[in-house]
Design brief:
The chain is an all-alpha fold. It has one domain. 84% of the residues lie in helices and 0% in strands. The chain contains six helices and no strands. Helix 2 runs antiparallel to helix 5. The longest helix has 29 residues. The mean pLDDT is 90.
């Protein structure tokens, strides 16, 4: 029980606020590129995460986790976290959604897959940022 309460706290609420901002910006980028610019699933979702990850880094580092560390190592950990979360979330979302929504058209399946990928990514990313990218000495112990 102590582990759960250590994850569900003020940091999680701040992460959600930052996430809402990132989600609105990211959805505009991703769905705009896919539906209006006719870019592929991977280009649309990758553009979203590349651009919003830059915003996320600064908002989560200074606002959510109030992390004062200044190091290239931390930036590398953040980039690794984003890349791993992205590949897992979107790599799972597309085949899973296509299997479940097999009777629907490709555009519907892909839009739902991108939405599912966003949900998977958010959960994985919170854990990765909190306990890997921006972990504190207290959370390491």
């Amino acid at each position: 029980m102590a582990k759960i309460t250590s994850v569900i706290d003020e940091k999680l609420l701040k992460f959600i606020v930052v996430g809402v901002i990132n989600t609105l910006v990211g959805m505009a980028i991703m769905f705009g590129l896919y539906n209006l610019a006719h870019c592929s699933y991977w280009v649309s979702s990758a553009a979203n995460y590349i651009l919003t990850s830059i915003l996320s880094y600064f908002l989560n580092k200074y606002f959510t986790f109030q992390n004062k560390e200044k190091s290239a190592r931390q930036v590398v950990r953040f980039v690794i976290n984003i890349a791993v979360c992205y590949l897992i979330a979107y790599g799972v979302a597309k085949p899973l959604t296509f299997a479940v929504l097999g009777g629907f058209g490709e555009q519907v399946q892909t839009n739902v897959a991108m939405l599912a990928g966003m949900c998977f990514f958010t959960a994985l990313n919170y854990l990765g940022q909190r306990f890997f990218a921006f972990k504190t000495e207290k959370e390491s112990a």
